[in-house]
């Protein structure tokens, strides 16, 4: 082996070692969470800390379900996120299509009005929204979480991404549809939506995660534990004295993180590219 | 075709539903749900927030009294606001500086062909998909006085501080927790910017005998600088809206050291039930975000120019 290839090999090893060290704070907390969730409580605080235990136990997992209606809370998060994603996909693909392909008076001005929805942080509108939903009798229901998430800021971002995608479609496709006798709804549904799968999946993943991670909104709108969503439920694992039930909390956190993490690892290429695509264009 | 029938057709009423009219109608119908959502859940609430900020609320009777600019005057005399704004500036500034440098460093390291690049990209990105609360809980656990980080420090003979109980280390903890969770997004954006740098430029520079550092500062950085600036602003705007991390990790404490503006808005409105003042603070937050977005549009123009 010549000295040149040897030094390039050394460089490569150095690069991987540097990246490996850098990756520790990104990866270890998640591994730690999973490992601690199967440890007996005293071992969680053992010094020196370890990622291994000789006495694995799943008791923290069963405790998570008995301490709170955790299965119910899990179901709440799943159905809300799925519903929000479905509504957002429908609304944003309709609006994105219209803004991209249909010429109607006021389209540009209305598009600017919609984009304002991206600009306003949810913390700014939460007080008035709380009052509005209180008046409508929707406090301590899932309606505020579903409606605001599905139709406000996340949906505006989705509409923007969909519009960018539909703009790039060739006009001939629509003309072919017209010759077949399709109207606008037909062209949208039969021709453009099927072609928009990459954009729709990026939007779908982003929307699902946004809904899955909501914390401020459920904290403000919900008071009954059986209506809680997962992020909110995770912070309620404290004993009668306000002490944290660490192993139960970590077991519950593991249960909320692992499904999403596994889906991400399987679909990571599409996921990351979807994000890069939507980020700065 | 006879002349008579052509005339008859010419005088008949043209159909009302022309393709053009149908198009206009479907355009409006298609955008109606989205437009209604923005009106109902963004624009009207912002209008209401402005109205609330001009009123005082009695939570018990639900009575509103118009007080004009009183809450705005109260901003100037609020003894807590300076430290809240300082914490907001330190948090957002710290997050953006660490996020950009770390994101750029990882992107540059990953922007070469080697086995495992995709794996590392996945690893660095993975915290983004872990929910904020779960991620923050785990870090809260690691940062405990007897938690994992001090346990690790103890093995090399260092007595670690009680991270979340001292002002400076609490702020540092919140910043690092936030940066590690979100840097993956910037890494991806930087990677796609780096891939847009023409490789001929690198080859030319290498032919001229330029070293790695010169190439980075003279070619790579200038060419991706517009992306860096834009990402910086997106990151600050995101940091300005960080609520869950603060609420779960420190609850704004100790004292006010990690109480950022968003958290202060929440406290005033929902813990102290001061809806008028809370709305005034919320509008202050909105003005910061709008200012930064305006700046972003200015930079965007510059960015588009670079692309051409």
Please provide a written account of the structure.
Chain A: It holds the Pfam family BPD_transp_1. Chain A: It comes from Hamadaea flava. Chain A: It is a multi-pass membrane protein. The complex is a heterodimer of chains A (281) and B (308). Chain A is mainly α. In chain A, helix 7 runs parallel beside helix 8 and helix 11 packs across helix 15. Chain A contains 15 helices and no strands. Helices cover 76% and strands 0% of the residues of chain A. The model of chain A has no long low-confidence stretch (mean pLDDT 89). A two-stranded antiparallel sheet of chain B has the order 1-2. The relative contact order of chain B is 0.11. The radius of gyration of chain B is 27 Å and the shape is flat. Chain B is mainly α and 308 residues long. Classes of the chains: A mainly alpha (281), B mainly alpha (308). Chains A and B meet through helix 1, helix 4, helix 5, helix 6 and helix 7 of A and helix 2, helix 4, helix 5, helix 6 and helix 7 of B.
Topology of chain B as a string of helices (H) and strands (E): HHEEHHHHHHHHHHH
The interface involving the most residues is between:
A-B, 95 and 91 residues
Count the strands of chain B?
A: 2
What overall form of chain A do the CA principal axes indicate? flat
What Rg of chain B, in angstroms, do the CA atoms define?
27 Å
- N- to C-terminal distance of chain A: 46 Å
Subcellular location (chain A): Cell membrane
Transmembrane segments (chain A): 12-35, 78-100, 107-130, 142-166, 187-209, 246-267
Protein name (chain A): Carbohydrate ABC transporter permease
Keywords (chain A): Cell membrane, Membrane, Transmembrane, Transmembrane helix, Transport
């Amino acid at each position: 082996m010549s000295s040149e290839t040897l030094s390039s090999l050394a460089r490569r090893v150095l690069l991987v070692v540097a990246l490996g060290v850098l990756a520790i704070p990104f990866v270890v907390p998640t591994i730690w969470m999973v490992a601690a969730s199967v440890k007996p409580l005293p071992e969680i605080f053992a010094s020196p800390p370890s990622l291994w235990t000789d006495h694995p136990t799943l008791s923290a997992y069963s405790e998570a379900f008995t301490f709170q209606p955790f299965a119910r809370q899990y179901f709440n998060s799943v159905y809300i996120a799925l519903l929000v994603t479905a509504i957002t996909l429908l609304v944003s693909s309709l609006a994105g299509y219209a803004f991209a392909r249909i010429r109607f008076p006021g389209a540009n001005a209305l598009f600017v009005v919609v984009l304002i929805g991206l600009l306003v942080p949810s913390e700014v509108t939460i007080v008035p929204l709380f009052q509005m939903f209180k008046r409508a009798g929707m406090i301590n229901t899932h309606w505020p979480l579903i409606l605001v998430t599905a139709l406000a800021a996340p949906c505006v971002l989705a509409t923007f991404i969909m519009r960018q995608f539909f703009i790039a479609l060739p006009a001939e496709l629509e003309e072919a549809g017209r010759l077949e006798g399709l109207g606008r709804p037909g062209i949208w549904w039969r021709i453009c939506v099927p072609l928009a799968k990459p954009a729709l999946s990026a939007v779908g993943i982003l929307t699902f995660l946004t809904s899955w991670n909501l914390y401020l909104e459920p904290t403000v709108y919900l008071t009954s534990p059986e209506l809680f969503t997962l992020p909110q439920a995770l912070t309620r694992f404290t004993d009668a004295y306000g002490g944290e039930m660490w192993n139960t909390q970590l077991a519950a956190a593991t249960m909320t993180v692992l499904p999403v993490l596994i889906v991400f690892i399987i679909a990571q290429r599409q996921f990351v590219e979807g994000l890069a695509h939507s980020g700065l264009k | 075709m006879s002349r008579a029938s052509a005339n008859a057709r010419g005088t008949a009423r043209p159909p009302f539903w022309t393709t053009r009219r149908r198009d206009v109608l479907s355009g409006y119908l298609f955008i109606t749900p989205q437009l209604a959502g923005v009106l109902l859940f963004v624009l009207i609430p912002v209008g209401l927030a402005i109205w609330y900020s001009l009123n005082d609320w009695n939570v018990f009777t639900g009575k509103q009294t118009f007080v004009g600019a009183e809450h705005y005057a109260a901003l100037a005399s609020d003894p807590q606001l300076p430290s809240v704004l300082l914490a907001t500036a330190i948090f957002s500034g710290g997050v953006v500086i660490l996020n950009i440098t770390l994101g750029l460093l990882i992107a540059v390291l990953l922007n070469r062909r080697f086995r495992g690049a995709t794996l590392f990209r996945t690893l660095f990105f993975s915290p983004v998909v872990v929910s904020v609360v779960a991620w923050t809980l785990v870090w809260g656990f690691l940062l405990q006085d007897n938690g994992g980080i001090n346990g690790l420090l103890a093995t090399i003979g260092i007595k670690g501080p009680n991270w979340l109980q001292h002002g400076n280390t609490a702020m540092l903890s919140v910043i690092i927790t936030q940066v590690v969770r979100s840097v993956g997004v910037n890494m991806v954006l930087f990677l796609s910017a780096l891939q847009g740098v023409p490789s001929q430029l690198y080859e030319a520079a290498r032919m001229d005998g330029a070293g790695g550092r010169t190439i980075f500062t003279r070619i790579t950085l200038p060419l991706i600088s517009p992306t860096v600036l834009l990402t910086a602003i997106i990151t600050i705007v995101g940091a300005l809206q960080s609520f869950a991390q603060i609420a779960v990790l420190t609850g704004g404490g100790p004292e006010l050291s990690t109480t950022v503006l968003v958290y202060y808005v929440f406290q005033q409105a929902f813990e102290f039930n001061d809806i008028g003042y809370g709305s005034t603070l919320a509008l202050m937050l909105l003005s910061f975000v709008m200012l930064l977005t305006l700046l972003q549009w200015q930079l965007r123009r510059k960015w588009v120019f670079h692309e051409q």
